């Protein structure tokens, strides 16, 4: 698991680096789906994340950030704000430096290191789970950049597959808690591609992801894996994209589930 995850994370950084290399300076200033963040700000956020994992502290400012809802968001803004004075080339160089150093650290770690208990943005877990969340974050931000500059790509393969694993871990909470699906209900997400999957959630005492359902799903949501990821990441308003989802079964429950999909902090 450790070797697979580290390779996927390093490959993801390589994919982002290649994307950034092809961007003209003007594209770095384009707004993304993230409130107040340009393409350069997204790259700065990735840099800040890796510097933080390397033990550095963000430069604290007295500014307030209206769209921030938690302490993690505030720390993210500190890193981004710090790097706004730098040029795209300078931020790109920082990205390469930070990810190269982190890649070496990760490659030198053992499987035991990855299995060790660790804080994660999703609560207490293992260092390996933290790095899976990190891969999900980086891949989502690659897609933020691609969307902003109009260059689709890397929507399938290891980064997308592992990112969907991370999203899948949240589906019980989404269906059971946020969408308040009733006892006995079941929901299937049929992802039609670029990553093809059938994800099942059963409300049996507590909503949980299961390998299969005992019968037909109460509702099946049919959509692309790309749209599924963008909705779960809160990158696009559900109301503006719900027409792209096909509901088979209890549409009222299906729409509740769709509107409950955004879960990232």
UniProtKB/TrEMBL annotation:
GO terms for molecular function: metal ion binding. This is Uncharacterized protein (TIGR03083 family). InterPro entries: DinB/YfiT-like, Maleyloyr_isom, MDMPI_C-term_domain, MDMPI_metal-binding, SCP2_sterol-bd_dom_sf. Residues 161-255 form the MDMPI C-terminal domain. Residues 11-146 form the Mycothiol-dependent maleylpyruvate isomerase metal-binding domain. Pfam families: MDMPI_C (PF07398), MDMPI_N (PF11716). It comes from Actinocrispum wychmicini. Transmembrane segments: none annotated. SUPFAM superfamilies: DinB/YfiT-like putative metalloenzymes (SSF109854), SCP-like (SSF55718).
